Amino acid sequence: MSFLFSQAHANTQRRKEKALDTHAHSSLLHASPVDAVARGLLVGAPVGALYGASKAWWFEYPPRAGYALLARQAGLIAGIAAVYAGTNSLVAHARNKDDVWNAPYAGFASGFVYGMRCLALYGKFFADQYNENLSRTPFEKRDAHPPIFIGNPRDQYKARWEAIKEREATAAAESDE
Q: How does this chain sit within the bilayer (predicted)?
């Protein structure tokens, strides 16, 4: 009798271990990137729809405007989730590792896509530099940024400095002759 009990207990223990060992079956290396994107879309769409519905309810949008907001948020969050899941899976396949470093790459990619959607990255990194460095001539830059120290109107050495400049100018004119 104890033999039967020990065998039954051993079999249930093995079944429990197999049931708890989900990492081998849900590893990113065993899933295809297309499945990951589909899972991201399937999870992101309802989450986005809930977010859009709660936003429409919280800010008391008119009834018909709430549907448009719900659809827009559902599509946006589903797209971001799909990019995140797909990039996470692609990075895992490319590196042939399923570790914590896949998530930052996926987060960067989904943030990049979201930033490009609203042109935040373009405005931040390119527009300011273009305006400052490429669109102005050196003379416009000089006029836009005057020197830091122009002079104190009550400068006690101003008269001396003018005399020194005048002497140097006359000395330069005499040396040229």
A: Multi-pass membrane protein
For residue 46, tell me if it sits in a domain: yes
CB 44 within 8 A of CB 113: no
The model's pTM is: 0.49
Residue 151 is assigned to a structural domain of this protein: no
The confidence score (pLDDT) of residue 123 equals 62
Q: Are 54 and 48 in contact (CB under 8 A)?
A: no
State pLDDT tens for residues 24-36.
Answer: 445 666 778 888 8
Query: What's the CA angle centered on 72, arms 77 and 117, to 5 degrees?
Result: 65
CA-nearest of 65, 76, 7, 2 to 41 is: 76
Number of separate domains in the chain: 1
Q: Which of 132, 88, 130, 126 is nearest to 109 (CA)?
A: 88
Amino acid at 84: Y
Q: State which residues form the domain around 119.
A: 29-143
pLDDT at 20: 47
4 in any annotated domain: no
Give the phi and the psi of residue 121 in degrees, each rounded to 5: -70, -40
| Single-letter code of the amino acid located at 157 | Y
Amino acid at 24: A
